[in-house]
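Example record

The entry below shows one chain as it appears in the dataset: sequence first, then structure tokens.
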Amino acid sequence: MRAKTEEQIAAEEAWYETEKVWLVHKDGFSLASQLKSKEVSLPEGKVRVRLDHDGATLDVDEDDVEKANAPSCDRLEDLVSLVYLNESSVLHTLRQRYGASLLHTYAGRSLLVLSPRGAPAVYSEKVMHMFKGCRREDMAPHIYAVAQTAYRAMLMSRQDQSIVLLGSSGSGKTTSCQHLVQYLATIAGTSGNKAFSVEKWQALYTLLEAFGNSPTIMNGNATRFSQILSLDFDQAGQVASASVQTMLLEKLRVARHPANEATFNVFYYLLACGDSTLRTELHLNHLAENNVFGIVPLAKPEEKQKAAQQFSKLQAAMRVLGISADEQKVCWFILAAIYHLGAAGATKAGRKQFARHEWAQKAAYLLGCSLEELSSAIFKHHYKGGTLQRSNSFRQGPEESSLGDGTGPKLSALECLEGMASGLYGELFTLLISLVNRALQSSQHSLCSMMVVDTPGFQNPELGGAARGASFEELGHNYVQDRLQGLFHERTFVQELERYKEENIELAFDDLEPAAGDAVAAVDQASHQSLVRSLARTDEARGLLWLLEEEALVPGATEDTLLERLFSYYGPQEGDKKGQSPLLRSSKPRHFLLGHSHGTNWVEYNVAGWLSYTKQNPATQNAPRLLQDSQKKIISHLFLGRAGGPTVLSGSIAGLEGGSQLALRRATSMRKTFTTGMAAVKKKSLCIQIKLQVDALIDAIKKSKLHFVHCFLPVAEGWAAEPRAASSRRVSSSSELDLPAGDHCEAGLLQLDVALLRAQLRGSRLLDAMRMYRQGYPDHMVFSEFRRRFDVLAPHLTKKHGRNYIVVDERRAVEELLESLDLEKSSCCMGVSRVFFRAGTLARLEEQRDEQTSRHLTLFQAACRGYLARQHFKKRKIQDLAIRCVQKNIKKNKGVKDWAWWKLFTTVRPLIEVQLSEEQIRNKDEEIQQLRSKLEKVEKERNELRLNSDRLETRISELTSELTDERNTGESASQLLDAETAERLRAQKEMKELQTQYDALKKQMEVMEMEVMEARLIRAAELNGEVDDDDTGGEWRLKYERAVREVDFTKKRLQQEFEDKLEVEQQNKRQLERRLGDLQADSDETQRALQQLKKKCQRLTAELQDTKLHLEGQQVRNHELEKKQRRFDSELSQAHEEAQREKLQREKLQREKDMLLAEAFSLKQQLEEKDMDIAGFTQKVVSLEAELQDISSQESKDEASLAKVKKQLRDLEAKVKDQEEELDEQAGTIQMLEQAKLRLEMEMERMRQTHSKEVESRDEEVEEARQSCQKKLKQMEVQLEEEYEDKQKVLREKRELESKLTALSDQVNQRDFESEKRLRKDLKRTKALLADAQIMLDHLKNNAPSKRELAQLKNQLEESEFTCAAAVKARKAMEVEIEDLHLQIDDIAKAKAALEEQLSRLQREKNEIQNRLEEDQEDMNELMKKHKAAVAQASRDLAQMNDLQGQLEEANKEKQELQEKLQALQSQVEFLEQSMVDKSLVSRQEAKIRELETRLEFERTQVKRLESLASRLKENMEKLTEERDQRIAAENREKEQNKRLQRQLRDTKEEMGELARKEAEASRKKHELEMDLESLEAANQSLQADLKLAFKRIGDLQAAIEDEMESDENEDLINSEGDSDLDSELEDRVDGVKSWLSKNKGPSKAASDDGSLKSSSPSGYWKALVPDQSDDEHDPPDSTSRSRYSHNYLSDSDTEAKLTDTNA
């Protein structure tokens, strides 16, 4: 999956933010945006949307809105991948893909195909090879992908596979089947016998299309039969053989077909045949004007031409399939005979006979019989041929036995003729299938098979625009589709849920609807007493097929009675709706509606003529006998040979022949369906045969692994005027919005019928299947299989468990394997015996396994190739040795070939062995002859045995099949007998019960008869007067009268009670009916609400599941990213480890290099020693040459010249010695220089390595220091920011407190002014208070306090004053501490500023250091360049040294030559010593001496050059040494600078730590002070409360004492001066209040220096209390005024405490 770009992600986010939705309406769906309006309240269940195509705003139901996916999901290949999986999103995706010519789409495990318009180019052979060998995950959705998936699964699991195609008629099922088989035949290939190939399949398709297809109103080339095409594969995966089984052929279409439809295609092909000979032979040169079968030739010339071409193609296809010319001729004979029978016609009234005998004579001629025999077989219901005498056995059944005596059903002549035509065509079709299977069969062993099921689709005439009802054949085809859809439901839902339940996998699928089996049950539900053949109608429900069989046996039964019985069982009951019943009544007579595809496809059926059709037609059964007794041998031979085999089951299923084991197995399975249980009895019934054929089809494919292909019809081609009218019943629209049909769709996508497509989608239950596929675990494997398959992904577990990997606990082993695979927990689940996976997880594991396997195979191939190469090398070595041996022998042969004895041996040896070889040859010939005769004999015996074996095997198979049939028939008979026995026992039991009841009733009747006789006698006696009026008679009469009166009274009483009860019951009934109506209405309303809530719940559940799955997908992606990150981290660590190992290896190699250099140096020293030896040898050579020259000079010259020459020679020798000494000295100097150079190079290399290591370590340290500095700087910056924020916070708080203080001061000033004004106004009220106080004084006089109480009060007052003073002192101390805290905050701010400055300074220093580091880096780069240049120079010097070494080697070679020459000269000197030589020799020696002198000069120049080179190297070494020293000095300076920076950082860190400690200490002190302040405030409040109480008591006591004293002295004085005293007293009290308020203005003025809060006298307290007592003019100075005073005082103290806290 490709990663999304940022633009795509942004587009998707914008899409989902707009909340795009699909608005569902009756014409389809439209794209809209959901609006969330908070202003306008919508009703519950309504939402507001805005349409995108016109911008209209609508309020719609919540159920009509479905979420829309982003545009990136428009053409997804798999519908399961949609984020929001709903109907509209699925239909939109299908529409987009269909508009882009993408016809195939995955829907989970299934494939969804839209029928194409035309022949798209996606089915070519090139496209086939694109899918070859691929996995399903790697393939795009295509019909070839389904075939490849099934083929791959078959090869891997060796299990049979089946591909089932579902859909409506005309949706492309047969075309898809053709492409499926063509792909399998092309890709898989065929084995050596070529039993099945692409050409044969095309020929088979042409044959089946001609004989089994016909035009209908829904499809121009519709298949009219069901088929199973089976391909058998061998071990290699190639097609070994094939077979075709057909069933449910519409044989009656030959003679009777609906209006506007035609018969089978082959008739039109035959009538358009261009072969005149064949037409003459078939009597088709002159065609009839009318035909009762409706078989008329084509009218248009182009159609005739096309039909003729198709007939030629059909003949070629039959030749490809191995159908001979005679067999083809038989087919044409039968077809032409059917045509002539239609032309002959039948009489409508009177005697049953042909209407036109000349055409009947042609038909009889073609069939090989006489006209009388043909007429008897058709109209007289019996045939006079000898082979038709059959025994009336049990297996025939009563229907067959009733046909032999002519007492069968009464049929018209036309029905008899139609029966013969349908029987002939059925036999012909069965014959063709047998011939096809003969061409496709093979005796080769096959391993597994693949079956492709193709059936006619859903038939609905209304969908094609026809006004007729569906026929019985169309009911059978629809029934087949319903059964196949039921199989899809079972495999997709039922089996999966059962598997989850068995494996304890907890998954909830609450919205899963049950399987809609009502339509199937209405057709084929059997009765429990179906084995008992009786004409009695029971109340037990049974299907339409069983009802047809019963009604056909009942005399006088009609289609109306059939429908009544059917509706009584399955019709709608009272209160039922359309969706609750599978059957609906139609407005037309003898019509009914049946809901197929889960009630989405309602088909109207016409039952007229169904009873007569289901009855046995004798002409149909006479057709095979007529063909078997034909006078034409080619006809009788074919049909007699086919009739001899037991493979055809009553003409129901054709194609059960086959030679392979798998074909026999399939035939046995289908035969068992027809011969087991009730099928053995009912298999002769035409109605029950339909069910049995479908059962055989389902049983044949049920044992294999199924692959479903859903073919959808994009548009109904037959709809004419009002296509929406037909869909109104199929699809119930959830909304009544009437939107324009074309406004909401794109222009290129109008070719899809959304309503039709939605109906097919709902009917197929694909949406539920996709939801289950997404939510569940579709892939699962057994523990052992999963472990064996995927243990290659965890090799460490394989090593842990050993090579065999056999474990006891498979579950634990799988858990370990899953843990090692590191899968997401939600992507797999462990069951009891299986491990389950989400969709796509197993595919990813398979991909990983393939990658791992490919790696292993690559390694294995490499090992194999290496082994083969080594073996080849050994073989070449052996060949080389053999060649050498041959060459050696050839050389030896060349040496002895001319030797006489060898010639004699080679001549005589063959003559000796001639006699022996001739005798051996004769013996061998005799042995060969004997062995050949034995071989021929054994071959003959083997062939005979093989023939016997084949014959016996065929006989055994026939006997086995017959035995199986007989056994099954016996079992059926035994079941029938058991049923009859049970019925007899039940009847006997009922008889006994009835007998006992009869006896009891008989006794009761006798008693009653006796009573009646007595009553009659008494009555007669009364009438005749025979009874006397004695006492006895009167007594009886009285009793009788009394009994009569009692009886009458009892009757009246019972009648009255009954009437009363009846009235009460009627009232109760009416009440109950009313209650029932109410409850019914409530129930309907509740049901509607429940349905709405259920739909809403399902929708919300689906959206929740979609969101959950999307979240799980995101979690899986995150998990994969985490795995990739972990893998990247591990690879990175491995790379680091590898780099470290590489570094260590490099160091090791460097050490080895140093050792090798040392060894080279020692070798050079040895070389120099050798050079010294060479020099000694050279000196010896020179001395010998001198002696030689002396000897020669003695011979050539006289003594004087000889002495002169000797003198010169000695001078030269001296010079040579001097030069040699100088050369030795220079060589020693050179050697010393080279040693010094080598040492310097080694030292340079070592220094370079150490320098590089130091530079790397220094860089790492600098980087670490830089990172640590950056971290510390960041921490410091964070701390400084925090401190700055704290400082700003404190300043803000300070400003807030100052503003609060100013506000409070203003408020206090205003309060003082208002209080003063209020006090002036309340003087009058104070008088009333004083009067009240006088009353209190009077009361206090009566209760005067004692001195002890006064002393206690004084003590309490003193204690309160002391406590108040302590509180004031504590407050002052807190203010001092707050000021200290302010100072500390200022200090912290200053320190912060200093740190900021220091930080900026450090930043500048850091920048400078970085600049310096960059400069040092540049210098380092320059040094490295110089170093590289020096290394290059050193390499050049080494090259020069190598050159010198080469010259030295050449000198060694010259030395050796000189030694050889010296030896030669010594020998010459010895010779010359013995004999004199001539002068020429002396001249040659002198030339040699001159040559030696020139060489000596050359060596001198070389020495000088080496000296200059050594001097240059020495200078370079000195320069490098100086640069190295400079670099070391620079590095030392950098180290010192780094150390200084580190020290500064440590100091800064310590300062920061000190500041942090100070700040913590300050905060701690602040917290402690706040706690102390709170405690002091609490204590102050309590003291103030006590103080207020004391003030009150003291003031009361003081006032009382003063008033008492004044009253005792002079009462008159009080009276006279009361007013003046009161005014003065009030003024004093006002002054006291003012002083109190002035003291309480601010926190600094709240307390005096001595801490006293009271006045100088107790009267001051009273004066302070007076203003607070005067708050209300109506309240007396009691407890209320005191509480107000306390409240005011507390509020003032609280204000002061708050101000103090704020300042702190």
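Notes for this example: The longest helix spans residues 1031-1196. The chain has 41 helices and 20 strands.
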